[in-house]
Structures
1.
Amino acid sequence: MKNRSLFVLLTIVVALSMLLSACGKVESPATEVAELGGATEAPAATEAPAATAAPATAAPAAGPMTFVLVPKNLGNPYFDTSNKGAQEAAKELGVTVLYQGPANADATEQIQLINSLIAQKVNGLAISADDSDALVPTGKEAMAAGIPVVSFDSAIGKDGRNFHINQAVLHDIGAIEIKMASDLAGPDGGEIAILSATSTAPNQNAWIEVMKEELKKPEYAKLKLDEVVYGDDDDTKSYNEAQALFTKYPNLKVIIAPTTVGIAASARAVTDGKLIGKVFVTGLGTPNQMREYVKNGAAPQFALWNPLDLGYLSVYALNALATGQIKGVEGDTFKAGRLGEYTIKMDPDLGLNVLYGSPFVYKADNIDNFNW
Amino acid sequence: MSAHIVPESKLINEYAPKRSFLSIFQRWEWMLVGLILVDVFINTRLTPYFMDARNLSRASSDFMEIGLMMLPMVFIIITGNIDLSVASNMGMSASFMGLLHNMGVNIWVAAGAALLLGTLGGMLNGYLISKVKLPALVVTLGTYAFYRGLAYGFLGDQAARGYPEAFTYFGQGKVFQTLVPFSVALFLFMAVIFGLVLHRTTFGRYLYSIGNNENATNYSGIPVAKIKFVIYMLSGFMASLAGLILAARFGSTRPDNGTGLELAVITAAVLGGVDINGGKGSMSGAALSLLLIGLMRFGMGLKNIQGQVQGIAIGLLLIFSILIPSFIRSLSTVRKTINWRSALSTFIFLLIFVLFFVFFFWSRAAVIASV
């Protein structure tokens, strides 16, 4: 009898001690973070970040700020790159930036996470929304609690954030693609073709319209658009369409593919067809997928926004809001370190937003700085 | 045969002195209460933001959809069945309401139609399981995919938004001027009703009876098929109700809303001591386990512990919830001596978990320190 009770007791004690030890272990990194966040009761922690760099702007003496970068999900290299940029800005500003995201790209989880961040009274949230509408009530709650909210990469609905960090506008995306094509075709110009996704994709068609407008400009007079073909964002179909273009237009110089599937398939078709140096591919792609083709010369340059800079800009924006430098209304301007000055603008669809700039051009000399 | 009777009579004798301090742990509910107290104690010590009424109020509504779906799930699991389609049904109903709202239908009519559709979804499950006599796991696995597919069929990649404030009150509002969210009050009200039905009515007793021995129950003249049909119908109704609450909380609907919640629902029920094989469980246990999961997740969130790690902690707790009672049971049933094999395996499990936790957090600390 005694023996048995002893065992039950032992089991329970071990179970509870495990629970305690688990929580205890977490304490060390967590309290470190909490102290940095709690401006009121951490005299020791205040000195730590001050040693790294003098704050760029003379912020009001409110102690070190803690901002949180909330990606759609953790373990996503795209957002890990944003975090790198955010940490760079944090160092320059002398603030702390935490990187906290849901396990899955799911609005329910993200809202739960943001609620716990609001509860900790962090000083600002930069969020890439898993669901632009569902996050509106949560964003409102945060702002009501005095926490500035900006969204980056994927916008929260207008009412749920102070403003959105917009990565690119439609016109700039179309324009940069024609500019890259012109660079690749050389001073003599030549024939170009567009390999799009589906013929019904609204963003693709809008970009193609912009490209056609751009081609009317005198500086692009020597570029001749042969045809627009559709690879349906299917790798095999895009590959075949690219090959068909080679045979149909022997003088073809550049393929523009404003789709990540199409650009990789076209670059592969150029490589396989031993056409490197004769036909160039450009468009919108991602660094990891295109690295090989940038280096072998099939696609020497392509464009997309830069998640690193988006993270960097988000932190500067939060800092400007949290320190009271700006109120987050139309026309406010703030400085964002190496990126220069930004102005908050009003857009009928997007509401208040800050435009990052024109899309970033990835080339052989910068592509190895990116891993996503 | 007679050899078996002898130890059994001993067993009855053994129950008497068990009313010691330790016997309370044989009621899983008390164990949950203890765990909740431990969790509250640790969290209160670790972070000043935990014991904050406003914070707790905000966090609590994150778990109410799970809670609403858990109530009929307790019924279903007690009968030894399962419903994997609840979260999909929830998404389908909410999307249907969103579709009607986008078409300009009055929001209350749309909500009513969504409740009807959800209930119909539950009835389809119930019909296939009780009348056609297909296995519940397979049927609801099928409707799990089917209902989610319908949700996408209704809304595609669109969202429904712009619900009137009178409707979003159900997800975002507080009861009168207090800090209690409406959804929490709704859950508590429903939990009391479901609890009374389970523990105070013959219908509730029949559920246990089906879970213990369905054939015997059937031969006793109890309408097993009808009862199973009713509980699946209830499950469908509650899933759509949860869908409306979620839509109100989000102020919008997307077809992927609530993906994966069915596992959280089942976890909450099983952690509450509802036997996955049927026949055992209580409503108070399930409600307590929901509270425990909510407090644990909120507490870990406050300490910025990643979602994945939170999942590990909940998962381990779930395994303990079935390991410890079965261990204790083995102690009391194995004659006078201890079942050494069971004891050993329990301790090995515990050791593995402790080592795992230590290693995990130790390795994590290094990563965090380097940033």
Note: The CA atoms of residues 18 and 24 of chain A lie 10 Å apart.
2.
Amino acid sequence: MNPITADRRHFEDLALGEVVGLGQITVTREMIVSFAREFDPFPFHLDEAAAKKSLLGGLASSGWQTAALTLRLLTDAFLSQIASAGGLGFSDLKWKRPVMKNDTITGTARIIELRRSRSHPQWGVLTIELDIRNQNNQPVMTMKLANLVEARSPVSAQPESAE
Amino acid sequence: MTRWFEDITIDEPFPLGSHTFTEDEIVRFARDYDPQYFHLPGAGAEHSHFGGVIASGWHTVVMGHRKMVDALEAEEQRLRGLGEEPGVSGPGAGVNRMDFKSPVRPGDTVTYTLLVSAKRPSNSLPGWGILTNQLSAVNQRGEPVYHAELIGFSKLRDFKMPLRLRILKALTKIPGLGKLLRNRS
């Protein structure tokens, strides 16, 4: 038994269709510039004058920063509350609208798939659909994220399981 | 991509360079964006199936983006050095798939490679082409770290704007009328 995750919700405790409300985070100029310096140093993420002249029309966060902040919201509201065993990846990530300086983002995570791992009976695979919006309820980003979750009882998967 | 849409060759690997992940930066990223116990020292990572601290998969991915930005900037400088005018790349539109293959531990070195697997002119954005980018990351033992399929944009060099769009563009330059047109659309 893993002492870190023993008291957390396991694979068997999760329900298909369950919706988790995420917290919110306001993206400041300092956050945008600091992330861009390290991971996305395009002038339109670093400099307000360059940003005004760009397609974005003003200082906006890197799409990857929006994704990373979403991961933080998801970790706090959900992944740290369950017996997470690590991410498998994600799919269908769409950046719908830039996150501008001082925008506040929030959203929901919905469980859209739960299945047992075929190769690892101690794990289940959880798929979450994320819908991230700004303070005007406009869509900012959507994606699907797959994560491993420890199961309480290791049983072999149903034959239709893909992994 | 700092090459014009017309100049981009399909299935040609474009090396983006390597990055060594120190424990310090792994922890710093995890504290900000992914504070799960297997990304933080002293939080019980040894009890996870990883057996110790590993980097957030997202950390390895955003570093791959950084390597791509740097490599494209270097390519732009190279083309300017040859007296050529570099192309223009547009913002990323999204990611079709991102599959994490093996964890990155402190001290691991990850090498990134970009390859354009398909391209076509955009229907919705005149003057731009849509690229299907394959990004692969491997560690110092040659094991895959992740593979991603991303959608990008690149400007067409030989684009001739249709008359209808040219008139519209000219009209938006007239003060007052331009604002009116933009607000209507």
Note: Residues 11-27+60-150 of chain A form a domain with the Thiol Ester Dehydrase; Chain A fold (CATH 3.10.129.10).
3.
Amino acid sequence: MNDKILLAHGSGGKLAHELVEKGFVKALANPLLAKLDDSAVIDFSGRLAFTTDSYVVSPIFFPGGDIGKLAVCGTVNDLAMSGARPLYLSLAFIIEEGFLKSELNRVVNSIQKAAEEAGVGIITGDTKVVHRGSADKLFINTAGVGIIPEGINISGSNARAGDRVILSGTIGDHGITVISQREELSFSTNLKSDCAPLGGLVAEMLNASPNIHCLRDPTRGGLATSLNELAKQSRVSIRIEEQKIPVREEVLAACEMLGFDPLYVANEGKLVAIVPDEDADKVLKAMRKNRYGENAVIIGEVGAEKPGRVVMKTVLGASRIVDMLVGDLLPRIC
Amino acid sequence: MKYISEFRRSELAQGLITQIHRQSKTPVRFMEFCGGHTVTIFRYGIRQLLPKTIEMVSGPGCPICVTANADLDKAIALAQIPGVIIATFGDMLKVPGSDSSLQEAKAGGADVRMVYSTMDALKIAEDNPDNAIVFLGIGFETTAPTIAVSILQAEEKDIKNYYVLSLHKLCPPVIKALLDSGEVKLHGLICPGHVSAIIGSQPWEFIARDYAVPCVVSGFEPLDILQSVDMLVNQVEKGRSQVEIAYRRGVCPEGNRQALKLMREVFEPRPALWRGMGGIPGSGLKLRKKYQRFDAEFAFDIRPSPTREPAGCICGDILRGVKTPADCKLFGKTCTPENPVGPCMVSSEGSCSASYLYGGGFE
């Protein structure tokens, strides 16, 4: 029975301590975490960004990542999209009784690697174990804090007519990768999730221009939904060109088969930036030097007419509306 | 060759568009029968690119849209029977019947599962021997053969708890009914690509011959549609009416013999109810007597609620090509993809949904 998580591992008793100390604290090696006080106590000053997200992806392991990497990157990216430098994360597990310890270790190791790459410390955490069937294998919640540097003001409501819209790379990779791993859908691809921490990319972009107006990571709901949010928040219109949006051939093919539009498929390592026209080239150049932005392109521009509307010039040269995602494309992709 | 991006190439499209503009003199009305074609036309903005001489109208080729309320009510009633698991393609969940939808039935405790293939439904049956699994057989000639295979496999494996509610519909009879009604004058028909991959192009011959309406079987990429429009224009301008295939990579004149054989082994034609068109002889499929034990209508005492049509909804007229989504008072107001009143707003292939998502009052 040593290989499985038991209810007692979440009880706060001996087994729980063992799991936390041997399993988590050691792997995540952070002095603030190792203190094991009720709260992590940290000193800092400045403008704080604070965010949280829960991760329920199924399957928990997929090409290019797993639920652990996702739980770090997702929260780190939400911080980065406010222009913040991500600093610390909390980490809470909800584990289904009977979950394999070996799989938990794999997830914890992947969390450690992702946190290291993102440059964040995991400084507080929690573990709960629920009866078999009350959760599906493993759910994770992370919250994160970061500091927003002086002079940076990034918000979804900052887009202005004349701004350029930059996309950091191909869309749909994460959503299609996870969907392709689902049992009920038997198709295979060589795709990998794009799951990646974008704090570094954002820092380099802000170095190139502190005047970036908006940043957003198009996760659930995809690029289309992010652009609609930005257009509505900023009361502007956004016009994009289909031809300029990079989509891998495999993603296109899977979308055809499943009846999806890549514009609505989730990403976990991409961002959209809305940048003043005069700074667009500088930012684009900086992005292309970063491994997570090497395929960055300007896909469109911001306009003043018909606020809240996103319009796309199709490959044929006609125009059509790009609306928000309606309903759920497929549940539990992040 | 890449089968997707190659068929979306902008420079080839420009060439076709120029050619269509140069060629088209006579004002015409073409119908794209298939909902898949409707989606491509809206998604790529093809109507905006055609000359004023060409009017495109959408046809009844969306299986979910044409499913009559009376049939939806049967599916919902089946879902309420204790021990029954409904397996269905996803789009069906949200379609409102007379009083409720499968989605609402599910929220109320009915076991309704979304599947991607009939084989998944069969697997649910094998995994749940104490339940009765009813697969909702919705679709045209495209899906019928796969459902036939599931029934043959169920028989071979002696699976006793698998049933099909056969609401299948056949395409050529409904086109005949449309043309016979004379409600919409058509000068050309874009024939469905996937349906023709199964039945071939021959079953459309009567349209060109008896009604003098040019036909082109089309694929689903924007270049396929433009090429098909170009071929229709060519027929019109030269005074021809023939059945031509623009979708050679998917369709041959005689169709897929194996699929047709399987379909005919399991199913036989019967009259079917179409939304907006009523009963059309020979336009549906039912299980042959030999396979009756898999027929949900035979196996269960289905008691649907009395059929009602949603007030103000003109899906029926839209499906006949008589009206467009823009003519509907509910469109975009009380009827949206989030809160659909009629099926054409629910189905991803419905013309209201395509028009709302991609057109939305946009000029």
Note: Chain B touches chain A at residues 2-5, 8-10, 13-14, 17, 42-49, 94, 115-116, 120, 222, 226, 337-338, 348, 356-360, 362 (CB under 8 Å).
